[in-house]
Each structure stands twice: as C-alpha cells, then as structure tokens.
Design brief:
Blueprint lengths: L8 E2 L2 E3 L10 E3 L2 E5 L3 E5 L8 E6 L3 E8 L2 E6 L5 E5 L3 E3 L6 E3 L3 E5 L8 E6 L3 E2 L4 E2 L2 E4 L2 E4 L3 E3 L7 H6 L5 E2 L8 E2 L1 H11 L8 H4 L4 E2 L10 E4 L2 E5 L4 E6 L4 E6 H10 L7 E4 L1
Parallel strand pairs: 2-3, 19-20
Antiparallel strand pairs: 1-2, 4-7, 4-10, 5-6, 7-8, 8-9, 11-14, 11-18, 12-13, 15-16, 16-17, 21-26, 22-23, 22-26, 23-24, 24-25
Length: 275
C-alpha cells in the first residue's frame, strides 16, 4: 500500500516494517501507546490547527514513530491512518481492554452515583478495562461508568444500520468519530466497528468493501457512494448519513438525496456496495 494516508513514512523517517520498501534516513520501531482522553484528533500536519483527518477514542491504540514537542506522529491502530496527535492524550499501552463501549455516549463518574462529578462524554467503540462493580457501575481508569453501557470484547452488534441510527441528530464534524459529532465515513466506520468488522477511514477506501450491486438491488446495510461521500441504506428506499446539508446525521429518501447532492456539484452516485 503506497497511499500516503496509511503509509507510516515521511521524508527521512519510516516505520521499521518499511525497511527495504521505501527510502528513509531512519527506520524506527513503533511504540504502542493508548488514548487516555475521551477523543483525540488526528491531524494531517504538525500544525495543531491543521485539518482533522481521523479521530481516536479512549483506549484505542496509536503506534508512535516520533514525538516532537507537544505532538506525536504515528499510525492509528484500528484503521491504519497516519497523522499527528497531541502527545499529552497518550500514554504507554497497558493491559488489553476487556470491554467496548456500546452506548453512543457515556460519562465516567467520580463515584458509582449519577449525582457525582463526571468527565466525558466517552463515545461508542471506546475500549476500557472494567474492574469492580457496584450499584450497576463498573470502575474504569476514568471513573465509574454504567456497566450496562458496555459489551465484552468479542461480543458485537449484528445490524450496522441499527447502530448508525443511534447517531441520528449527532452533529456533522469533519474527520470525527465521536458520538456527538462525526462525518459520513466516520458514521459507517463506527457502525461496522460495533459489528466487529474492519473498516478504513475515508469513503474512497470504504468503496472497496463488499461487492458491487445495482441500484435496483439496494437493501438494508448496503452502501451508496458518491465522490467523497457515503451513505448506508436503512431499507430499499431510505439512507442514513452524516452530511453537510443537514450538518447532522439524518435519514432521507435516496430518491430525494440523489438530485440534491447532484445539484450541489458532487454528481450522481458512483457505486453501490453490499457488505
């Protein structure tokens, strides 16, 4: 794979795994680290104000290749995206998680009590180790969180469209995967991760998933692709997608979305895929 979005290489530095594949002055072994904040933006460049291209959630792995000042450069463990993150949002990777957050959003409380001070929110698919349980809450490194909001690692959803529907009304955010804000490919990624399926970050990469079908065959959980956009079918007629028109995750008829998106200059759908 030579796509720079997922190639851990830049001028003068590359991951050890690329030795003999790409030219670099230094090859380094990545240092596995994990996210210790609710969400952490992955930036295109070393400028903290640069474009957010991906987002890490609490407990997820980031393979660090270099730390320069306040920023770490490396590769996202779950989807392979390469970029820069705030170094203070990471720490050395510890014991593996025991659970995945299954609720769209959840808070961590100072005590097993909904009236206690809280931090968060944490988003669906965050990874945690759950400890002792009390009064329906489990202890995590961030505080006490509702036990029922979690699923054990290896226990997954079975209906991606149902997962996507839980994000209805969430704000549109470029490069986002949070329960409170995400983009079109982030929504698809979150839905598939919750169902135990690997999924790349950007819509053009997601277009390689599954197999091609015709529009007349569309059914629940199929994907519709435009240039730079993706939506998921809820049934043979309706889509759910995070989009800049509604600036939110919304449901609408595909037959209405196609001419609206075309009129905006994006064009007509370029692919229909069945997972």
């Amino acid at each position: 794979m030579t796509d720079p979005r997922v190639l851990p290489w830049r001028e003068g530095l590359a991951a050890r795994s690329l030795e003999g594949v790409v030219a670099a002055e230094r090859y380094v072994d990545p240092t596995p680290m994990q996210v210790v904040v609710p969400a952490l933006g992955v930036r295109r460049s070393a400028d903290p104000a640069s474009e957010q291209v991906d987002q890490l959630l609490a407990g997820e792995r980031f393979e660090v290749l270099e730390i320069d000042g306040d920023l770490a450069w490396g590769q996202v463990g779950r989807d392979g995206y390469v970029g820069h993150v705030a170094a203070d949002g990471l720490e050395a990777a510890g014991a593996p998680p025991t659970h995945r957050l299954a609720a769209r959003l959840s808070y961590a409380f100072a005590r097993p009590d909904i009236k206690a001070p809280a931090v968060g929110p944490f988003s669906m698919n965050a990874l945690m180790r759950l400890g002792e349980e009390e009064a329906g809450f489990s202890r995590t490194r961030f505080g006490w969180m509702r036990t029922s909001h979690f699923a054990p690692i290896g226990v997954f959803e079975t209906d991606p469209a149902a997962v996507a529907e839980r994000f209805l009304g969430a704000a549109y955010r470029w490069g986002g995967r949070e329960g409170s804000g995400l983009d079109c490919s982030g929504l698809v990624q979150q839905a598939l991760f919750a169902c135990g399926r690997a999924c790349p970050r950007d819509s053009d990469l997601q277009e390689r998933l599954g197999r091609p079908i015709e529009r007349a065959e569309l059914a629940r959980n199929d994907l519709v692709f435009w240039a730079g956009h993706v939506a998921m079918m809820l049934d043979e007629a309706r889509i759910v997608h995070a989009n800049g028109f509604h600036m939110a995750v919304a449901v609408e008829p595909l037959a209405e979305a196609i001419p609206r998106i075309e009129a905006a200059g994006v064009g007509r759908p370029i692919a229909y895929r069945r997972l």
